[in-house]
Amino acid sequence: MQTLPSLPLLLRxxxxxxxxxxxxxxxxxxxxxxxxxxxxxxxxxxxGHVLLYPTGITGERHPATDAQAGTATGAPGRAGRAAxxxxxxxxTTALPTGQDERPPVxxxxxxxxxxxxxxxxxxSLARHGWRHLESLNYSPLTCDIRTAAExxxxxxxxxxxxxxxREVDIVGHSLGGLIARxxxxxxxxxxxxxxxxxxxxxxxxxxxAPLAGAHPIVxxxxxxxxxxxxxxxxxxxxxxxxxxxWSELDQVIVPAEAACIDHPDLDAVNVRVTGVGHLALPxxxxxxxxxxxxxxxxxxxxxxxxxxxxx
Length: 311
Description:
Blueprint: H1 7-14, H2 27-52, H3 66-73, H4 78-84, E1 105-108, H5 119-127, E2 133-136, H6 145-163, E3 168-173, H7 175-186, E4 193-199, H8 216-219, H9 226-230, E5 241-247, E6 267-273, H10 285-296, E7 308-310
Parallel strand pairs: 1-2, 1-3, 3-4, 4-5, 5-6, 6-7
Helix pairs in contact: 1-10, 5-10, 6-7
């Protein structure tokens, strides 16, 4: 396992508004209070997401820009524009050198969800200089992780062709992270995906609710399913970096540690999130800050025991 060295310090600075416990709480008192706060936050996030959900039902529209626009019109493409312009328009902030070269970030939602779950994360990334942000929807009728991973692969190829980039980064929430990992690990997606960030993804399977298990793709998220077992197979030479965020208060991933990546062939770091539930992972500002750091971490992290922690 590897760890991102400054994650705990960064998150302690960002979470100063958290409620304080008594001076010497017992472990059970702390756990109960933390679960209560996390549940309240989950309900707030759920209510907000219900309101935003209709805005994400339709897929994104992509204007003919970047590499394709330059080819079709004779105008400078991504590299040409960078060379031709050295000043930002009035009212905008010029990006530091190299930020325009960041690969596109593909955002992939979870089960029975859509791209609206990433509204706040997308805004955070855009505000910090990411220019190429892609939110993909897959149908709730999709019944197989492998099929969804193949569809993701076709989307990634289209994005690379349209933007002129050879690689992308992916952020996947819950099932979206599992689909992305299958694409990377089993379908050769490591040649296209530089970094895969997963949020509350059942890498080891989850003991899901019985009624939800009626859907075939939910059954594939259970421990021991064929796709989960395929992800345990050797993956020598996998080039993608993995960063997995998991929370001890996640009530969807059971046990919570199943959201960790444990594979000897993968360059992976597991980041423990405290005080945040499953639904809040894509919207929490502290998690967003760590995602930005993970996407900007071009150099491999130094090995250390255990996991990093979002405090």
